[in-house]
From TrEMBL:
PANTHER family: PROTEIN BLI-3 (PTHR34818). Residues 5-144 form the General stress protein FMN-binding split barrel domain. This is Pyridoxamine 5'-phosphate oxidase family protein. Pfam families: Pyrid_ox_like (PF16242). It comes from the Bacteria.
Length: 158
C-alpha cells in the first residue's frame, strides 16, 4: 500500500461516521448503513455485526465489497471483507454506545467484526474547489466540464 494514498483516504473519511456497506446477496447487490469504527485508518476498515445478519452470510459467500462515504467528499472504497471473531479486537474497538445500539456486549459470541481490506478508492471533490478546477480546465483546454465533480482514483495495492 502506498502511504500517501492511505493518508489521502484517511483525510477524506475521517469525519464520516456512517458508511454504506455493499455486499452481494442472492438477489443482487445490497447496501446498508454501518458505523465505521474510530480507529486510525491504515488500509483496513472495521465494522461490528452479528452472525445472524444477512451481511455476515453474504460475506462468507463472497468477500468482494464496497464501502461508500458521503461527507465533504464522496468516497467509494473497493475491497475484500473478512469476518474476524477475536474477543480482544472486539474489546479494543468496543464503545459503550454500542451496548444500547446493538443490545449486546463485546464478549457476545454472536458479535463479530467485519474487516475490509481496501484495494482501491475513488473519490469526488465537490463544491467551490471543484468549480475552480472546472473553470481552470475550461480555460486551459477550451472545453467545458460536464459536471463540477472532480474524480480521482487511488490504487492502494501495487
Amino acid at each position: 500500500m502506498k502511504q500517501n494514498e492511505i493518508e489521502t483516504l484517511r483525510e477524506l473519511i475521517k469525519d464520516v461516521d456512517i458508511a454504506m456497506l455493499t455486499t452481494l446477496s442472492e438477489e443482487g447487490l445490497i447496501s446498508r448503513p454501518m458505523k465505521t469504527q474510530e480507529v486510525e485508518f491504515d488500509g483496513d476498515l472495521w465494522f461490528f455485526t452479528k452472525k445472524e445478519t444477512d451481511k455476515y452470510k453474504e460475506i462468507l459467500h463472497d468477500k468482494d465489497v464496497n464501502v461508500a462515504y458521503a461527507g465533504k467528499s464522496y468516497v467509494s472504497v473497493r475491497g475484500q471483507a473478512e469476518i474476524i471473531d477475536d474477543v480482544n479486537k472486539k474489546k479494543e474497538l468496543w464503545n459503550k454506545a454500542y451496548e444500547k445500539m446493538m443490545q449486546t456486549s463485546y464478549d457476545d459470541p454472536d458479535l463479530v467484526l467485519i474487516k475490509v481490506k481496501a484495494e482501491a478508492a475513488e473519490y469526488w471533490e465537490t463544491g467551490n474547489f471543484a468549480k475552480k478546477i472546472a473553470f481552470f480546465y475550461k480555460k486551459m483546454t477550451g472545453q467545458s466540464v460536464e459536471s463540477t465533480d472532480i474524480n480521482e482514483t487511488l490504487k492502494l495495492n501495487d
